[in-house]
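Much of our argument rests on the idea that a fold can be written as discrete symbols. The record that follows shows the chain in one-letter code together with its fold in token form.
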Amino acid sequence: MALATEIVGDRWTLLVLREAFYGVQRFDDMRVDLDVPRSMLSDRLRKLVESGLMTRQPYQEPGERVRYAYALTDAGRDLALTMLALTQWGEKYASASESPVEVVSGKSGRRLHVALVDEAGEIVPLEEARLALRTDPSR
């Protein structure tokens, strides 16, 4: 947990990742959406690329210079559940109101929640969760 927090544990990094999850990939679009100083955004994007959570992809509008878009890698996309869990917690304990957006099932339209699920697909209440030493280190 501590190692992961070193990579994504500051406010601006989380906001940049949120933008990427929303599908925003271009530097200028992120800068405007977040109202963040250019140097701050450059620094956070550089760190996310170095950590393997995002990649830089060149693009060029006709008559313009080459610019870069920032796309989530598989490792970055795998943070989705963590981001959703933080959102759930924030709405419950840190915010006076719900987020203006929510994650819903594309099939049923019902709201989705992050939960603990065992290997058989059964939801497990947090009270039943226990820490255990791994007996097979290759797992």
